Structures are given as structure tokens and as C-alpha cells.
Predict the 3D structure of the following.
Amino acid sequence: MANIFLLAITALLIENFVFVKFYGICPFLGVSQKTETAVGMGLAVTFTMTIASALTWPLYYFVLKPLQIEYLETIAFILLIACLVQLIEMFLQKAIPSLYSALGIYLPLITTNCAVLGVALLNVQNDYNFIESVVYGFAAGLGFLLAIFLLSLVRERFEFAKIPKPFQGVPIALIAGGLLALAFSGLRLSF
Amino acid sequence: MILSLPVYFEIPLTVLVLAAIAFLFGLLLAVAAKKFAVEKDPRIDEITEYLAGANCGGCGYAGCSSYAKAIVEEGVQVGLCPVADAKANGEIARIMGVEVTETARMRAQVMCSGNHTTANYKYLYQGLADCHSVSRLGNGPKECSYGCIGLGSCVNACAFNAIKLENGAAFVDYDHCRACGMCVSACPQNLIELVPFDSRYWVACKSKDKGVTVRSHCEVGCIGCGICAKNCPNNAITFENNIAHIDYSLCNQCGTCAAKCPRKIILDGLKPDAIPDGVPEV
């Protein structure tokens, strides 16, 4: 139990997917202008990562490993994740159209989001069991949610700040993201 | 359960496994597509068919399909599309079961006629052909800081190839112009205005400088003398910041202003002969 808890904290804070591993930077910068859509994106990624962890584990251990074709993990996982994202997209369009239109192009982009593929591959590399995989996927997703939420809070305040012209938009967002990453790396050193 | 297969089975096996996984997921998606299908008004697609598909934004919406959606779902007026002709608008109105509301056709007009021949240059620019970057260098290469930079940011913005550059100034081909307004927002000098399509006279200058300065900068600049305003029988011309401005709701196309202008810079769009040297036929 303590092991699982430690795993979750590691994925969430100490080895935060965005700030320490630098996965999923595209949506991190692309959808962080408004807190509302940022949280929506974060939740969508968290959901996708959890489900992807839960589905890639049996795919790996019950299909790829018995057939001794583990080297197909990347392509098989991508196949699964792409299908999963399509499903989520259909579901959101039906159930929460406002979130669907707010996420726009970034929702299909989760398909190629390296955070989702990364968590699936790391689960296998680190020999996690099923429970550990799901917890790791969920915590890593929450880590992404935390990162994008924090950046969106900062970026909302940029609206009212006097930013020199060359720094407006993405440059200042990158600087803010870099400072946040610095803070998280400090957390890593203290453990 | 570990299979021990001969090596030559390995490649067909991988193909088979991936194909099986893909087929399974495809099946799942097909079922989900049916289950989560969003009911969309078929009229939206029908209307999009009749719109131009250029996504120019002239109607005020993000693109053709969002305008079609607005027509169907919010009951927005038919006929806002500057590109769709009367026939297409008629079809859209028929789909929606409403009357067509005519909107006055507009055209874009570049309010400057200073070119290589008529305007003086303070420097020769060689570099990236983009008006925005050059406008940061002392408001362009011409001595007049309000004039057309002539590198064609409007030409690039136009989705209908209606603007061309001639001798260092931009001109609109009225027949091709659909008045979508993309060039209006693309011009860093704010030189382009939308005017009624059938209006003839336009002031070919936007300089806010005083008369003496304008004279030294350009042969075809408005010096703000006010003769046109005094002579206009309909009081359609007003002066602000040393520049004449025609109010097209009052103008009755009499042409007095063009005849009286001492600098000959109120031009007649329908009479190419009236345009000074260097200005191509429109």
C-alpha cells in the first residue's frame, strides 16, 4: 500500500510528466490560456492516461508477451490509444459539447500526445503490475492536470500585466513554464 | 502459454496480430459512432455546399460552416456571404424557407495612389516582402508615412486574387473583389476601406500631414484645401485631420469634387483615363 502511495506521489510531483520528464508540452502550451479549458484538457488527458494504462497492460501481458512480439509494443499501444481518443471524442461531442468545442484540435492531438504513450511504455519498462500501472497512469495524468492548471492560472494573469511586446503570447508562457519546472525540480532534489 | 513458432512465421504473425487488434478496435469505434452519433441538422451541410468554401470570414463568422450553422441554429440573416451570388443565396433561402434579404455589394478600395512615379522615397527597401515588417522601419520606404508600402500584404491576404501590385502601389480588381475585408485588416497602414460597389469617386490619399508636407512627399496627396467640400452640392465631403472623406450615403456621384480637386486626387473608379500616370486600369 505504501509502495502504491509512493508511486503516486512520485508520478504526481517528484517526476511530474510535464515539468520533469517534459512529456505533453504541446497541449500544455496550447490549451493553457483559460483555466476552464485547461482543466478540461487536463481531465481528458488524465482520463485517457488512466484508461490507456488499464488497457495497454492486458494487451502487453496477454497478447504481445505470450506471442513473443513485445517489440510491437509502441505500434500496438498507439493503435489502442488512437482508438481510445476517438472514443472519448465521440463521447464528449455527445455528452459535453461545450468542452468538445473548447478543446477543439487538441482533443485529437491527445492521440499523438507523448504523455499518454509514455505512461503506457513506462508501465511496461518498470515492470509494474496491473494495479500499479493504473495508479501510475492516473497519478501521472493528475500531474499533467496540476501542471496545466498552474500554468493557466499564471497565463490568465498575463492578460492584465504589462508584458513587453516581444514577450507577449508564447514566449512569456514558455518563461513561466520554465520557472514552474525549476520549482518542481527543486522538489525532486529535496527527496 | 509461450508459443514456439518457426522463425518464418514471425512476420505473418505480427501482421496478423496487429490486423486483429485494429479490426477489433475498428469494430468498437463503428459501434460507438452509432451509439454516440450527434444529430446534426442536415440543412447545415446543404447550406455549406452553396457557400463559397473560401472561409474568408467576410460574413463575420469563423468560416463557411460556422456561418451555415448560425443560419440554421440561430436564424441569422441569409445573404451575409459576400461571395455567394444571388442564385446561391436564393437556394439557401429556399432551404431555410425564408425571403432573401439583399445586402448592398461593396468593394475594397486602396485609399492611396502614390507609386514609384508619383511619390518620393526616403529609402530603398530590400528584404522580406511583407508590409508589416517594413512599416516598422519608419512607416515604410515612402517619405509619406501614411502611404501604401507596396509589398503586397493585402495581395497575400486576398483569397480571390483581386488585388495586384503595380509600380509600387496596390490596386483592387473590382470585378473579383468580394468585399470580405481580409485586406482591410491585413494593411498595416489602414489604407483599405470597403466602399459601395457602384460608388465612383474616392479620395486617393490618406495622409494626415499638413498641405506643405504632403506636397513635398508626393505628387498625388490630399493637401486638405477643402475645395471639394465647399463645392459638393450634397455636403457629402467632410474634412478631418487634413484629409477629405466622402460620405457615400450622401454622395450622388455628380463628380463635382473630382473636377474641382486642384491635385486631381479624387478619382473616378469607372473612368481609367481620369487616373494619373502610373495607375493601371481598374
Notes: Chain A has a mean pLDDT of 87. Residues 2-189 of chain A form one domain. Chain A is about 75% helix and 0% strand.
